[in-house]
Design brief:
The strands form 2 sheets. Strands 1, 3, 4, 6, 9, 10 and 12 form a 7-stranded antiparallel sheet that branches. A 5-stranded antiparallel sheet has the order 2-5-11-7-8, with no helix packed on it. The protein has one helix at 7-32, and strands at residues 40-44, 49-51, 55-58, 63-68, 73-80, 84-93, 104-109, 112-117, 128-131, 136-138, 141-150, 156-168. The protein starts with 6 loop residues before the first helix and ends in a 7-residue tail after the last strand. It is mainly beta and 175 residues long. The protein folds into 2 domains: 1-33, no CATH class; 40-168, Galactose-binding domain-like (Jelly Rolls, Sandwich), CATH 2.60.120. It contains 1 helix and 12 strands; from the N terminus they run αββββββββββββ.
Length: 175
Amino acid sequence: MTITASPNLLRILRFSLVLTAFSTARGADDSEMPKVDPGRLVLEAASAKIRAERMEFEKSSGAVHGLMRPADSVEWDFRVDRPGWYQVIVHYALAADPLKGEGSWKAVVGDQSRLGPIHATGTGDRYLPQVLFDPIELDTGKQQLKLSILSREAGVPELKIRKVEIVRAREPGRQ
């Protein structure tokens, strides 16, 4: 059986096939593109400024590690595109807790500071997130986060910091 079609119908069919091929190819490209989350900033250890004598960046683990004392800090410059409330989350590893639960993280951004507990994560290679208490309010533009510890002791040996996330949060007091 042979089907014959008018020249106009053939043009329409060819055009339809071209559109289908174009939209399929474009869809594949779009799905492979990384999605950017404007409500999440990730500050990697590799981009940190280390203000400590006994801490350094270790490329193999992708973490800042060493002895962190209360006078030491790890700092990041970053830019905020959407103003609002953000939660600070520290991803760290600590085999043993020499402070016995009495140490705290201290994150300072501008005139705001937030605290969160430091606990052992089980091993020096087990990184866990620690959410610091209460979100911070950030305006658009350039910001700096300074991360340090509070303790009565001399410091925390073999502490590893892989990254800090700044994640969009609800305004305090709102459901």
